[in-house]
Amino acid sequence: MQLLNDHVVLITGSGSGLGLGIARYFRDEGATLALFEYDESKVSKLQDEFGDDVLVVHGDVRSIADLTRCRDEVVGRFGRLTAIVGAQGIYDGNVRLADIPVERLDTLLDEIFAVNVKGYALTARIFFDLLDAEEGAVVLTCSQAAFAADGGGVAYTASKGAIRALINQLSFEFAPRVRVNAVAPSGIANSQLRGPAALGLQDSLQSDIPADAFRQQFEWLAPLQHMPSPEEYGPLYAFLASRHNRVMTGQTVLADSGALNRALISTGELMATMPGA
To answer: What family does this chain come from, according to its entry (predicted)?
Structure first.
């Protein structure tokens, strides 16, 4: 039996990277999909790849009007909604606070928090009644950055910490009928998170970091020594989104390949194996 048979799932930020990998995994697990995407060029690619069985909606998670229109289209097409998976996000370029021009800091924080945090809160509110009717689930995307420093700069890290707190509060408010959890990935192969316009990085992607060097460093640090693809995070999201999960809410599942379980006593031995050492 497929894990998501008879599940109608909305995935936001589904046009590339992690969101696209989740969409592909959910399709293979039997889910009926609605895909919400900001980038028009990605919308057409989603329609080409997934075909007419999938509802693809162009819109912005920061817009109540766009999300409400998406809700109307989901109801008109499927009549119900079992789960929402939030996968949209924007990176901050890992720029240190002291290196951010003061005149750009206000705009940067507004931009990052609007996409990464406000977008999730708006989506949860607008679709709540559909999820409540189905005893459904919300699964959002957090990050290792919510648990440890240097997963991004101040704006990104703070936004991911806010998502972790948002999960706690929503799970409390939405209980007992709607389960609310998050997955906190670490490294993602070919991540497509774009940078902020506030810093002139809107045309840059996380994947612009030299892939081989990033993979080497991540796999040296992480005990599992493997850089996950977006699809490999799919099973975690699928279980949390599914009706098979009857025991977890309010949880942020850290999926970091063991990276935070770092060596202490054996640091010297580990350093000797570092690439380029």
So the answer is: Belongs to the short-chain dehydrogenases/reductases (SDR) family.
Pairwise CA distance, residues 172 & 170, whole Å = 5
Under a CB-based contact definition with an 8 Å cutoff, are residues 92 and 53 in contact? no
Q: What is the pLDDT of residue 277?
A: 58
Pull the structure tokens for residue 273.
Answer: 């194996």
Count CA atoms closer than 13 A to 3's CA, side-chain side. Answer: 17
Long-range pairs for 94-100 at CB < 8 Å and ≥24 separation? 94/150, 94/152, 94/153, 94/156, 95/153, 95/199, 96/153, 96/154, 97/153, 97/154, 100/153, 100/154, 100/199
- Secondary structure (3-state) at 165: helix
- What are the backbone dihedrals phi and psi of residue 272, each rounded to the nearest 5 degrees, phi first? -65, -20
pTM for the model stands at: 0.91
Asked about 156 being catalytic, the answer comes back as: yes
**Cα(37)–Cα(15) distance, integer angstroms:** 6
Strand order in the sheet with 55-58: 55-58, 32-37, 8-12, 83-86, 137-141, 179-185, 252-255
Assigned token pair, 268:
């010297």
For residue 256, what pLDDT is reported?
86
